[in-house]
Specification:
- With 217 residues, the protein is α+β, with helices and mostly antiparallel strands.
- It has a single domain, classed as NADH Oxidase, CATH 3.40.109.10.
- Helix content is 35%, strand content 17%.
- The protein has six helices and six strands, in the order αβαβααβαβαββ.
- The strands form two sheets. The chain has a four-stranded antiparallel sheet. It has a two-stranded antiparallel sheet with strand order 1-6.
- α2 packs across α5.
- It is globular.
- The chain binds flavin mononucleotide (FMN).
- The site of flavin mononucleotide (FMN) has 10 residues, from β4.
């Protein structure tokens, strides 16, 4: 566990880095079942924290103000999805990484946002942009809340996990648009030889803040 510094938030933001965890071979690596409950509890805590993101407009949908929706798939459910992936989605390449990640993760969190649909509303474009922005803020909150609990993450666009067929299969709101598929690393895999961990693209391309910031004095 990293030592808390005087500015723990800065430290967690900079420490977070993408960890794409892929299962090697066909049988998923074993998790320590006794610890999975504790792991799930950490994920629930992090989702609770993520919901403290700012949002501008009351979405007024299903009695909820928030424009985002989270769907948590526990580890055993991810394994089930991995098992059926190539049956459910037949037009995908055999080297698609999603089943490998579903076979290795501790949990998958899908984050969607709910667009406004009244096209006669002149502000609809701006409102939807801000709904999406709020959902992105909640997503980054989740990454940081998980990182602060020593749980690695990967933000993927989600591919087939964002398809209408997938939403229907898991009773997700068909009006939702997927903004993030967050794979949460399970830290206690029994045999680490069963997994491959890959860093994120673009990681090393970051520049100094002065390069993308204009200061108006
Ligand atoms: C909205 C969004 C969608 C992304 N989707 C993907 C994706 O589908 N595949 C991928 O390899 N990286 C994707 N990324 C990028 C990685 O999540 C990661 O942030 C990036 O590779 C930089 O690595 P870092 O997080 O270690 O800095 C996405 C990032 C964002 C913000």
């Amino acid at each position: 566990m990293a030592k808390p510094t005087t500015n723990f938030v800065d430290e967690v933001i900079k420490r977070r880095r993408t960890e794409k965890v892929l299962a090697i071979g066909n049988s998923p690596p074993q998790l320590k079942e006794a610890e999975i409950k504790q792991f799930d509890e950490l994920v629930f805590q992090a989702v609770d924290v993520a919901g403290w993101a700012p949002f501008h407009y009351d979405r007024k949908k299903d009695g909820l103000a928030e424009p985002w929706r989270f769907t948590i798939f526990k580890a055993h459910r991810c394994r089930e999805i991995a098992k059926h992936f190539f049956d459910w989605f037949t037009d995908i390449k055999p080297n698609n990484k999603l089943p490998k990640m579903l076979n290795a993760c501790g949990a998958l969190v899908l984050i969607t946002w709910l667009p406004e649909t009244e096209i006669d509303n002149p502000k609809i474009g701006q409102v939807n942009e801000e709904h999406l922005a709020a959902a992105a803020a909640a997503t980054q909150n989740l990454l940081l809340a998980l990182e602060s609990r020593e749980l690695g993450t990967y933000w993927s666009s989600g591919g087939q996990l964002g398809s209408p067929e997938f939403f229907q299969r898991f009773d997700m709101n068909p009006a939702g648009r997927l903004i993030a598929a967050i794979f949460v690393r399970y830290p206690g895999l029994l045999d680490h030889n069963d997994i491959n961990v890959i860093s994120g693209k673009n990681r090393e391309k970051r520049s100094q803040w002065q390069n993308w910031t204009q200061v108006i004095d």
